[in-house]
Structures are given as structure tokens and as C-alpha cells.
Amino acid sequence: QVQLVESGGGLVQAGGSLRLSCAASGRSVTWLDMGWFRQAPGKEREFAAVWYSRGFTNYANSVKGRFTFTRDNAKNTVYLQMNSLKPEDTAVYYCAARSGTTGSGIPGESDFVYWGQGTQVTVSS
């Protein structure tokens, strides 16, 4: 069993930055594929970024070049650095995990087994 706890959300002006954290317990993140998904008001949850256990990352086109996924093995924590934030980035951001795979593409929501509670990110214009 894996438990995930997100933090780092908040209110920021357009063009600003935030760093989300996802602390994992129960298994080492080195053996997990980790994902970030987000859900805007009135919309379905969508993929944002993924870190495959073997070190490969992938991003949604909407965040590519602005968001960066990193991992701290010692802290068993992954991070999503979000720069140049836009009002359309406003959403609840969820951390997700599953046992590591050899994948490299864009995963779906149903591909992940473990989920955090979410953290709110609000970007004002």
C-alpha cells in the first residue's frame, strides 16, 4: 500500500511559480511510476506529467516547457515545479502512483492505483 500526501498549492498571480510536493510512504518512489493530474472546475481530471521509475518523464502539451517533474529519493518525495503559470492552470492537482513500468507515453487516469487528496492551485489574472 502506498500513501501520497500533496502540499504546496496556493494562490499565485499569472506568470508566477509554485512547487508542488508529493510525499510517498509505504514504498520507495524509485520503484514507482509517479504522475500528476489536475482537475479544473467543471472539467474532467486530466494528465499533467509523469515520471517513470526508470527516469523517463513526459508532459501534457499544455504544460510542456513550463512544468518540471523532479524526484528526491532520500525524502521519498516527488515535486512538480510550475513556472509561468496561467489562469488556465487553476485546478486541484493530484499526485498518483503505481508500480514501476517500462512505459514512456502518456498514461491515463485509470492506469494509476494510488492517489493523494489533492492540493488547490489558483492562478489569478
Report on the architecture of this protein.
With 125 residues, the chain is mainly beta. It is 0% helix and 50% strand. The chain has no helices and eleven strands. The protein has strands at 3-7, 10-13, 18-25, 32-39, 46-51, 57-59, 67-72, 77-82, 91-99, 114-115, 119-124. Strands 2, 4, 5, 6, 9, 10 and 11 form a seven-stranded mixed sheet that branches. Strands 1-3-8-7 form a four-stranded antiparallel sheet, with no helix packed on it. The N and C termini lie far apart (40 Å). The model has no long low-confidence stretch (mean pLDDT 96).
Low-confidence stretches: none
Termini separation comes to: 40 Å
Question: H/E order of the elements?
Answer: EEEEEEEEEEE
The structural class is mainly beta
Give the amount of beta strand, in percent: over 45%
Mean pLDDT: 96
- Which overall shape is indicated by the principal axes computed on the Cα atoms? globular
Helical fraction: under 10%
User: Roughly how many Å is the radius of gyration?
Assistant: 13 Å
Give the beta-strand count. 11
Continuous helix count? 0
**Main pleated-sheet profile:** 7 strands, mixed
Topology (SSEs and partners):
Blueprint: E1 3-7, E2 10-13, E3 18-25, E4 32-39, E5 46-51, E6 57-59, E7 67-72, E8 77-82, E9 91-99, E10 114-115, E11 119-124
Parallel strand pairs: 2-11
Antiparallel strand pairs: 1-3, 3-8, 4-5, 4-9, 5-6, 7-8, 9-10, 9-11
